[in-house]
């Protein structure tokens, strides 16, 4: 059981679309409450959880698994092997999200993505945001988040608008293969508020 969501005895691992696939550049459509509560959508949520867990991600958006709908799942613990996580996040299901920036101050993280395997890029984003969305029961939720969690939200919700983190990398010098990132960049000002020289570490 993760965050109240039952473990799946029969896991389904979906194929993840990679950079260059047109599905990643489309704008995903919103789902109605009836669609959210339907069997096919609930199965998609479970399959996305299984896929995210299998790939070792901290978040996954529906377009990444070839479904152009506004759905994101997220989950990570403070022992995550890919990222320096400030605080664990139980399994979260997000439909039709809307973001409002609460603090224009930027925070920088080295981001990764299951759809852009093998790379990390340094991206600066608003450090504190409000996210309004519907949960898996089609209930409205409003949450103010900051730090790493705010970055994950923004990274995943970008996918719903056809935007990838590589579109927002601070400069060409801040894009690296994972091996070179680990060798030359890991640990540089991780999680600090970003100015022109700050760096840190992040999602999918």
Summarize the structure.
The chain is of the alpha+beta class and 204 residues long.
Tell me about this structure.
It is a single chain. The protein is an alpha+beta fold and 204 residues long. It has a single domain, classed as Peptide Deformylase (Alpha-Beta Complex), CATH 3.90.45.10. It has helices at 33-37, 39-55, 147-160, 178-184; strands spanning 59-61, 71-76, 89-111, 119-134, 140-146, 175-177. Strands 1, 2, 3, 4, 5 and 6 form a six-stranded antiparallel beta sheet that branches. A hairpin with a 5-residue loop joins β4 and β5. Mean pLDDT is 89; it is low at 194-201.
Supply the number of helical segments. Answer: 4
Percent strand equals 25-35%
CATH topological fold name: Peptide Deformylase
Give the count of structural domains: 1
Basic shape = globular
**What's the main sheet like?**
6 strands, antiparallel
């Amino acid at each position: 059981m993760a965050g109240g969501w039952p473990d799946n005895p029969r896991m389904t691992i979906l194929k993840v679309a990679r950079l260059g696939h047109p599905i990643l550049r489309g704008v995903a459509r919103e789902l109605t409450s009836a669609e959210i509560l339907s069997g096919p959508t609930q199965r998609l949520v479970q399959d996305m959880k299984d896929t995210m867990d299998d790939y070792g991600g901290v978040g996954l958006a529906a377009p990444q698994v070839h479904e152009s709908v506004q759905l994101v799942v997220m989950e990570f613990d403070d022992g995550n092997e890919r990222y320096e996580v400030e605080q664990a996040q139980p399994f979260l299901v997000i439909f039709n999200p809307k973001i409002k920036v609460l603090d224009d101050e930027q925070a920088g993280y080295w981001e990764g993505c299951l759809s852009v395997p093998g790379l990390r890029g340094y991206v600066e984003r608003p450090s504190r945001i409000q996210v309004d969305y519907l949960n898996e029961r089609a209930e409205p939720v409003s949450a103010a988040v900051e730090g790493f969690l705010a970055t994950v939200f923004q990274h995943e919700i970008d996918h719903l608008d056809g935007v990838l983190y590589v579109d927002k990398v601070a400069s060409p010098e801040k894009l690296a293969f994972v091996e070179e990132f680990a060798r030359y960049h890991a640990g540089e000002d991780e999680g600090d508020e970003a100015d022109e020289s700050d760096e840190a570490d992040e999602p999918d």
